Amino acid sequence: METTEGITQDLVVKPIVKPIVKPIVKQQRNTHLIPHQWPEGTSGNPAGRPINKNSVTYQYKKKLAEKETANRIAQAIIDEALLGSLPHAKEITDRTDGSISNNVPVIDQRTQIVVISEKGKSARDQIKEITEGWK
Fold first, then answer.
1. CB-hemisphere CA count at 13 Å for 39?
2. Where does the record place the DUF5681 domain (predicted)?
3. Which residues contact 105 (CB under 8 A, 6 or more apart)?
4. 3-state helix vs strand vs coil in the chain, percent to 5
5. Long-range contacts (CB closer than 8 Å, 24 or more residues apart) made by 12-21
6. What is the CA radius of gyration of the chain?
7. What is the dihedral angle through the alpha carbons of 115, 121, 123, 126, rounded to the nearest 10 degrees?
8. Residue 126 contacts by C-beta under 8 Å, 6 or more apart in sequence?
9. Positions of the chain with pLDDT lower than 50, given as ranges
């Protein structure tokens, strides 16, 4: 072993030369379209989709915007609920109190529970009170 200024040659640390790595540049496609793009933060369709005035939904919304029509429909649903129509009563409670989940156990297929909401109590709590002694 030869020595270089008192250091053995096998202990000399040689500097590591890192290769120059060029960053990978993603090639842009359709660069010819860049001048025609919308500026960032603006919409290409500021007015939105045009309204289809021939659609049934548009006609419903137009009629329901009239106060008298909406009032007549609401009164008809209330009248049917008062006559005992369960779907109409459910519609009213779902719209006013929010719909309840379907994880209420069915105790008997022939039993129907109709709960008229009491102020301050949820329908779920009232059903639990009613069905406590049924087991």
1. 1
2. 36-97
3. none
4. 45, 5, 55
5. none
6. 37
7. -60
8. 115, 117, 118
9. none
